[in-house]
Specification:
9 helices, globular, 228 residues, Rossmann fold, single chain, alpha/beta, binds BIS(adenosine)-5'-pentaphosphate, 5-stranded parallel β-sheet
């Protein structure tokens, strides 16, 4: 989809709400890059960059990485050639400061937020999803031990590398992440609600049902999508 205007679609939801799972479908529908700040930070950690080393302790205990570092990382990513027309942002903005920074960046580009897709999932469901999640150390593929028929040898069904449990999917870190989400990210939802940009989706449904609803919303927001 190419509109000429720089548009950003947001995926907002608590840890384990299914943002990464749905991002694959939304990215494909939009034809725009998927930028997950969690994935970018994990890449920095794997590469051992100064940002990755700074971010590690915050991430492992379930706290947010400081705003100035994350905003700089996102703005740099938006400068890359594949992001000329817009992006799908997953996990950003997560604080009021990040939202204000994004608004300023979009205003400078003459762009705007197309829609903030909010995946609303009850807390007790989030714990079950995160404790059973397994991720590929290499291709970032995401699975669930109860939802997917995973190879007994622990290899990734997509690329054959190894599946691991994220350190921040341990119970104490999950509780901290959910607390941080309630405290710092729910104000961001209110920020976009006031701009009438939020579309809430009931996120405790089968993956395909959520996908269908999200794609319907996107087609309503951007009718050219249906033809693309
Ligand atoms: P990040 O990686 O963004 O983690 P998160 O927001 O906590 O989200 P998750 O990746 O845990 O969950 P998800 O919503 O993507 O769910 P998923 O699709 O995997 O961030 C990690 C850390 O990085 C943060 O804690 C922070 O330290 C730092 N960070 C990142 N962004 C930052 C920012 N902007 N500012 C500061 N710090 C930042 O699904 C979860 C599981 O459920 C999977 O197993 C999946 O298979 C399963 N599942 C998905 N959908 C369904 C469904 N409908 N039914 C049943 N199971 C499902």
């Amino acid at each position: 989809m190419r509109t000429g205007k720089f548009t950003v679609t947001l995926l907002i939801g608590a840890p384990g709400a299914g943002k990464g799972t749905q991002a694959e479908f939304v990215r494909e529908a939009l034809g725009m890059p998927h930028i997950s700040t969690g994935d970018l930070l994990r890449d920095h950690r794997r590469q051992g960059t100064p940002l990755g080393r700074t971010a590690r302790d915050y991430m492992d205990r379930g706290d947010l990485v400081p705003d100035d570092l994350v905003v700089k990382m996102v703005v740099q990513r938006l400068e890359e050639p594949d992001a000329t027309h817009g992006v799908l942002l997953d996990g950003f903005p997560r604080t009021q400061h990040q939202a204000d920074s994004l608004d300023a960046e979009l205003a400078a580009r003459g762009g705007g937020v197309l829609v903030a897709l909010y995946l609303d999932v009850p807390q007790h469901v989030l714990f079950g999803r995160l404790s059973g999640r397994r991720v590929c150390d290499k291709c970032n593929g995401t699975f669930h031990v109860e939802m997917h028929d995973l190879p007994a040898d622990g290899s990734c069904p997509t690329c054959g590398w190894r599946l691991v449990q994220r350190r921040d999917d341990q119970r104490a870190a999950v509780a901290r992440r959910i607390h941080v989400y309630m405290d710092q990210t729910t104000p961001v939802l209110e920020h976009y609600r006031a701009m009438r940009l939020v579309h809430r989706v009931h996120g405790d449904q089968p993956v395909d049902a959520i996908k269908d609803e999200l794609l319907t919303v996107l087609q309503q927001k951007q009718p050219t999508l249906a033809a693309s």
